[in-house]
Design brief:
Number of helices: 9
Strand content: 15-25%
Largest sheet: 6 strands, mixed
Structural class: alpha/beta
Order of helices and strands: EEEHEEHEHHHEHEHEEHH
Distance between the termini: 29 Å
Length: 254
């Protein structure tokens, strides 16, 4: 197996006397989709926040392609190749759907942020943005203001922004949360497509075990901030720690 693209080593964060993430060591490989599961309060989103730079670690390290990125800002980690989607949408509500995606395409092309100068002279960037919107089934809403979109379409747009960013590592935090039964499959299909790209890595925080069983190559379980299980989906889903978290069985020790 090739060297891991992303690693955490003894990654820890404390808030006062509470240890939210407790010395988590994991390797993530290119071409692999890893689902991160655990009960509420297990530290899943906090672990994501440490990797993407929203919060600083108390101890330990995050490494991308072997380089310690612990001192980098969120923006610098994004430029280095880490793309993050949140539980709550993180969009420009007063811009149109197309303008949101085009802005990311322009940034990725390193042409600056002069959005309003982008017209005929930037047709190629607009075409790229429209291609992304076609991919997420939002092309028909390209001219609509984001604040007017349904929650489900805002979630799809956030996936579009990640695709436009083209990171090496995709991070999805409960991507179908709040979506209708009709809307969720579009996002899940997109994540499945990303998984098929052998040069990309996907990390997925998700509660729905049917989604996890369908998409994951590997599952890691966090419990009280610590790594409690790590392995193939069938093995981990059948484990005591997952049964306790999702089926209500008691564990004497984890």
């Amino acid at each position: 197996m090739s060297p891991p693209i992303l690693q955490t080593r003894d990654l820890t964060v404390r808030f006062g006397g509470h240890v939210a993430v407790d010395a988590v060591t994991c390797d993530f490989h290119t071409g692999q989709l890893t689902a991160i599961v655990g009960p509420n309060g297990a530290g899943k989103t906090t672990y994501f926040n440490l990797i993407s730079g929203q919060i600083a670690a108390t101890a330990g390290s995050v490494r991308l392609r072997g380089r310690d990125i612990g001192g980098l800002s969120v923006a610098a980690r994004t430029r280095a190749g880490i793309g993050r989607a949140f539980q709550l949408t993180n969009l420009f509500p007063n811009l149109t759907v197309l303008e949101n995606v085009r802005l990311v395409v322009q940034c990725h092309a390193q042409q600056g942020f002069n959005l309003w100068s982008m017209a005929a002279s930037h047709r190629e960037l607009t075409d790229r943005a429209m291609a992304v919107l076609e991919r997420v089934r939002l092309a028909d809403l390209a001219g609509q203001t984001v604040s007017e979109l349904s929650h489900g379409n805002q979630r799809k747009l956030e996936v579009a922004l990640l695709i436009a960013l083209d990171p090496a590592v995709y991070m999805f935090d409960e991507p179908t949360a709040g979506m209708s039964v009709d809307e969720a499959p579009v996002v899940l299909d997109l994540i499945a497509e990303l998984k098929e790209q052998s040069d990309r890595t996907v990390l997925l925080v998700e509660h729905k075990m049917d989604v996890i069983a369908r998409l994951a190559d590997r599952i890691i379980v966090l419990h009280n901030g610590a790594l409690a299980a790590d392995g193939e989906p069938a093995e981990v889903i059948a484990s005591d720690v997952v049964q306790e978290a999702y089926m209500g069985r008691d564990l004497e020790d984890v």
